[in-house]
Automatic annotation (TrEMBL):
Gene3D superfamilies: 3.30.1340.30. The keyword Signal applies. It comes from the Bacteria. The keyword Zinc-finger does not apply. Residues 28-37 have a biased composition (Basic and acidic residues). The lineage of its organism: Bacteria, Pseudomonadati, Pseudomonadota, Gammaproteobacteria, Lysobacterales. This is BON domain-containing protein. Transmembrane segments: none annotated. Residues 26-46 are annotated as: Disordered.
Amino acid sequence: MNKRIQHGTFTATALALLLAGGTALATDDPKTERSDSADSQQPMGDTWITTKVKSSLLADPDVAGLQIDVETLNGVVTLSGDVASQAQIDEALRIATEIEGVTDVDTTGLRVDSTE
């Protein structure tokens, strides 16, 4: 994929995340987030965490951010999808772990796909 397409895809995805998460992405303030999740014990942070993890994965050139799905419940981030290598799994784990509010990261849903 050429750089122009990657940048356009990143921009479109970041905009979609921004629209889905309100102003949380633009302000980086988890207190401004709104959530419809009644199951979460941390409703003001999970959507913000998901948005922040996904945008950080998309911004990293060494991770297949578009291939990784991100879900968060009570600060626990679950990553799933197909990646090209174990190194991408390790990098995704590192990125997600560094996000404020993340209490744990589950990468068991990430699979190395040799066709990536």
